[in-house]
Amino acid sequence: MTLLPLLIIIIIGLFFLEKYSIKHAFDGIDYDINPNRTLIEIDEVFTLETVITNTKRLPVEFLRTGEIMPDDISLVGGEFETITCDRGNTFISDTYLMPRQKLTRTLKATLPHRGRYFFRGATLTAGSFLGLSKEIKEFHLTREVVLPPKPLETPELKQLLGKFIGDVSVNRFIMEDPVLTIGFRDYTERDPMRSISWRQTARFGKLMVKNYDYTLDLTVTVILNLETAKRERLEKTFSLTRTVCDFLEAAEIPYRFVTNATIDGTNSKAIIPDGFGGDHLVSVLRLLGMATYNTFESFENMLAKIAKGAEAGRAHILLTPEITPSTTPFLYKLRARAGREVLVITPEIMKDLETETSITI
Q1: 8-state DSSP, 326
Q2: CATH number of this structure's domain 27-147, picked from the four choices 3.30.70.1350, 2.60.40.1530, 3.20.20.60, 3.30.565.10
Q3: Which tens digits make up the pLDDT trace of 277-295?
Q4: Rounded-to-10 torsion of CA 351, 354, 357, 358
């Protein structure tokens, strides 16, 4: 008879522990996930660090973690049950937490396509003290990674770019270009007649010639057009653009980037000013990764604006899925304003570089 009161006390105690454990299941529990980089190459293995923290004095006997991952993600190694929900793929794993424990896990993953990907947090399910009931809590996060287009490793394209840049550079040195005039000086017998400035000659009363600066750096504007009826060529156009930017970076040639693409997640227009180097390339790659198939202005309007503000002596490289007859006059105007040829590259360049599918205008 003496055991019955003790048994009743134990049952009552367990009942209150069960109620308390489920009511306070997520007290002191936190979840976080972070990729080791925010700019990742296609199919590159990157690291995800997930952290689950228990700051309270009681253990969590059972914790099921449903981590919300992008639809296309592939986890490298590890066994996970996978279910699909409206927030993305959910990767399920079970664990337990000791009092004041911080559980850190490292996952390796890959993503297959250009674009923006989000890690939206997790749904955690905690079991009660006796395992008779459970409590669910959602942890909402937004962790983003961006995948730029993969470059096209083609010797032919690099040769084409090398020839274009080389021709422009040589022309700057061997041709006396009025846009490079930095002043005037007295005429000498070695100066060609065409270099004489008759206005300055009349002003000073003696023969004066233009003084050129042949040491100015070559600068390039890279133009990406996405307005097209041939949408199947868009991803290849992105890859061609990446290859061009990589080439200019390797050659340490400053370049400006302009596109009519709508950039996901921002209302700003896609213009990156002149520069080169690590930070500049990262800005371009992020923009290429976040670019959508939509455009905020027409191909013709973009070319007209670029031609209107074109700097004399600047080279231009245009990447576009196609060239239409309506855009040709704007390209000629751009060439006239810059005084330089415009290199036009379309996806057809990959089929046959011998058929004038890459052209200069």
Answers
A1: G
A2: 2.60.40.1530
A3: 989 999 999 999 999 999 9
A4: 110
